[in-house]
Amino acid sequence: MHTLYRLTPLALAALAVTAFAQQPAPSDGADMQALIAQLEQLKANYAQEVRRLRELDMQVQAMQARLSGRAGPGTTPAAPLAPAAASAVPPSSEGYASSAAEAQQAKQEARRSVDDVKQQQAALFSRRFTIENGLTYARYDRKQLTLNGFLALDAIFLGNIAIENVESDSLTYNLAARWGVSPNLTLNLDVPYLARRTVYQKGGAGGAAAAIAQEETNGSGIGDVSLSANYRLFAERGWRPETVLTGGVTAPTGRAPYGLDWKVIERDDDDYIRFAVPQEQPTGNGVWQANLGVSMVKTADPAILFANAGYIHSFPRGFSDIDSNPDTVNPGDVKLGGSVYFGAGVAFAFNERTSLSISFSDKISTRASTRFKGGEWVKVIGSDANAASLNLGVTYALNQHTTLVTMLGIGLTPDAPDFTLAFKVPYML
């Protein structure tokens, strides 16, 4: 490094002047052209050496940031270049940094796509405070064919055929705040607001197989609020990925799906309810939940690998009515089944602003249980679920503090939404 610093423009100019003074006066234009060519060659060599100096300077600063366990505004910069070399650096329009400050900025811009991916998959510990606005649309459409009868001679069906269809559209606005308490710890608060519309269709209305009854219900309100924390166990170093431990709790602040008022659409002559729907859609699970998970991120330029896994535990809670029959009221307890979630994916940083990600995520839930007052726990048949999705995402840095995140999720199993479309705008300080 010191040898490179001594080859400054002053030294190069002195060599050129000495060589020029020792030569006789040019007798024709050929000697002048040779001197001009020699000068241009010296300039090109000098520019190449400056670029190498800047690259080494950026590598030293990146290594210092990695050793200190943090990157960004709190990073201690490397020692500046020698005054002679720094004062004679060509302007930034030549394609390289013109000062140590610009070199540091270029390094941070090169890491921007990586930081945006980490912000979505785990946590970005170099940011002091982040406010995130998110909007998610989900579409759910499920059909169920119900056969009431029997087959005669394995060919002719005798009985009624009813097709039940449930179509649901939900729009969720989520306001999230993330506070970087320390270089290895962040606290997160998520407050969702839901608006949901559901259409119920049932075949065989009035006893006629061709008739279809339809009813639409809506619901909106605050969802279940979550409070969580991210702790960085290991920073990325060598082959080891950055590993983050996540723990949190979700409060039942939304409208529970139990004890809702029902709307009876159709009854039989014997007063048997054939078709009934809830008058208002729920906005939450109705129970307290706790989750514990781990996520990992590994950069392999230009790819960014990430994975996560965790478990969600639901606590039992009592309600004034857990009976699905609109004509009866039976208090009791509800215990949702535990859920295991996992996922993995890869992101590609196209440049300092844009990255594209593709991932797979799955959530497997066991059966829920109910217990009427004074009774025993009973498993609810059909309450288990396996919701798997294929996710495609794009992040684009709008400016130094704001990023636009888009995500398209495609359901792979019947329990998952048909598709989800999400937009997030995190503002980072």
TrEMBL record:
Classification of source organism: Bacteria, Pseudomonadati, Pseudomonadota, Gammaproteobacteria, Lysobacterales
Low complexity bias locations: 73-107
Protein name: Transporter
Region of interest (Disordered), ranges: 69-113
Coiled-coil residue spans: 32-66
Keyword list, A-Z: Coiled coil, Signal
Position of the signal peptide: 1-21
